Amino acid sequence: MADIPFWQRKRLTEMTATEWESLCDGCGKCCLTKLQDADTGEVYYTDLACRQMDTASCRCLDYERRQQIVPECTVLTPENIGEFHWLPLTCAYRTLAEGRPLPDWHPLRSGSPDTVHDAGVSVAHRTIPANQVPEEEWQEHIIYWVL
């Protein structure tokens, strides 16, 4: 049983906090500003990143204090993962919740945090901080390449 990786032998709710956190592939997609159509409920991604996201590495500048700095920061947990239908199909949390295997480029499979970037799955170097764009211009930043 020890030869089987934890993400293949455990349910999301059975994982330790460390295991749960290691599922994040570092793509940065969850840190993009998303717009929701009030009529249809459809969610659109923009190329506007949270002001706390390092746009090169796609990592939070202060992960431990992210909710104090950005109160609207989304915190994914095994208990609430089903609420986040907007997560991209590539997200490991969504992937495992839907019973799909982790892709080869995922850092837990490849052993390197760079493979998510090398595979072109991350938003590295393709975003701008949302606080640099007036909110009334956000619609002009809707992107489709993220999906």
Question: How much helix is in the residues?
Answer: 10-25%
Number of helices: 6
> Helix/strand-derived class?
alpha+beta
Radius of gyration (CA) equals: 16 Å
Order of helices and strands: HHEEHHHHE
Main beta-sheet strand count, sense and barrel state: 3 strands, mixed
What number is the mean pLDDT? 93
Family: Belongs to the UPF0260 family.
Pfam family, one: CxxCxxCC
Protein name: UPF0260 protein SAMN04487962_10637
Structural overview:
The protein has 147 residues and is of the alpha+beta class. It has one domain (6-141). It is 19% helix and 10% strand. The chain has six helices and three strands; from the N terminus they run ααββααααβ. The protein has helices at 6-9, 17-22, 66-69, 92-97, 107-110, 115-118, and strands at residues 32-36, 43-49, 128-129. It has a three-stranded mixed beta sheet, with no helix packed on it. β1 and β2 form a beta hairpin. The longest helix is centred in the N-terminal third of the chain and has 6 residues, at 17-22. It is globular and about 55 Å long.
Notable characteristics:
147 residues; 19% helix; single chain; alpha+beta
Could you write a compact summary of the structure shown?
With 147 residues, the chain is an alpha+beta fold. It contains 6 helices and 3 strands, in the order H-H-E-E-H-H-H-H-E. It has one domain (6-141).
Topology readout:
Layout: H1 6-9, H2 17-22, E1 32-36, E2 43-49, H3 66-69, H4 92-97, H5 107-110, H6 115-118, E3 128-129
